[in-house]
Amino acid sequence: MKFFLKLPIVKIKFPFLIILFTYFSINCSSQNTNGDLEDYIDAIIKNIPGSSGDDYKSPSITQSNIWENSLDYVLTNDIPNARLQLGKIGYKITEFLDNSTNQTFYILEKNSNSSNHWGTYIFTKNSVINNLIITAPHVLNDTNTGQQAVYCLKNTLAKAVFLNGTERCNSSSFSSCSGTTSTCDNGSEPFRISDVAHSEEAIFHLSTKILHEKIANSIFIQLHGFGKTADDPSVILSNGTRTTPTIDYIDLLKNELLIEDSSLTFKIPHKDLSWNRLIAFTNTQGRLINGSSQPCNTHFSSASGRFISLEQEREKLRNNVSGWQKVSNAIDRVFTKALNLTTENINNNLIYPNPSKGKISFKLKEIGNIKVYNLLGKEVEFTENYSSNSTTFSIKIEQEGIYYIKVSTKEKAFFQKVIILK
């Protein structure tokens, strides 16, 4: 009789405990707060594990799959499901309202009691430069690059920022990926698995792969720092190859940085072919974005133009806000160029195909007029009075490159960035 009397009690309490546990887990995995995004992330960076301790552990296949599912949800703005997934692997999403910009950011960060030091990933809720991701894989070793990345995110409203989660030498285990370094003060040796710019298993690398595949024409700017010697330039800008891509964002970025600071000096490995220092040829994200099917060990000789390694000496660009602003301004002009774009007037499905060889189709029922601008903000063509349901026209541009098309109707205007290939 005692057995049968106790059984209904267990049946009643058990689902209640499940509900309690689920509610507790969801609420621990979520957080809404506000403040200054830079201060919030600076506190995270200052508390990540240092150069010893073996705190960093590579994710399992199951954990990587859960992370991938979580990012899929984030990219479709399904934050509740993203939170449920991330809670399974010790991570949460903080919905953060930045008071200085009045913009909301989603911060994927580890729970305080989690031992998964895979980094911090920040997504702009209403991004303006929808295809730009700024990353910093060595936030402790390359001083201030994490803070600089967040400053650039706030001021350009790029799509996302990725930051690593431990000092690059934290783990004693070596990466299987090719290349060597003397960073960890043990002479030349293979990269550690905690050096996420050189590990294919890292969540940092997986996140790059996911956004590279999911976001059309995605661009990745990876911020680095180095100790300048007498023979070094101020900046080393590399696409990870010796090849000049069809659209050379690096050349554009160099020109904009010189506008910010004319004293800067540069080395660009695909132009300065004898330069061999800090050229990102063993960077696994660079290899991936350039098209290598085996980025861990295989360098790809062709450049997609969509990976930019920005190596900076400390004093001019990454020492403080003054330098960060120079980089942020240059990035902003390269990718939005003084067109005053807002989140309300960007429409990524307005014009197709993109990239195009010149002939563009429109999906609007009514089009008042059309304007085309180059990256300098100069109008290069004007077309008006199109009103059919499926209007097409050819852009008469002599040179290939990146352009912005403004389409105006009676009610509103739409901007879209297009790539013209000849």
From TrEMBL:
Domain Secretion system C-terminal sorting residues, every copy: 351-420
UniProt keyword Signal present: yes
Recorded superkingdom: Bacteria
Keywords: Signal
The protein's name in its UniProt record: Secretion system C-terminal sorting domain-containing protein
Organism encoding this protein: Polaribacter porphyrae
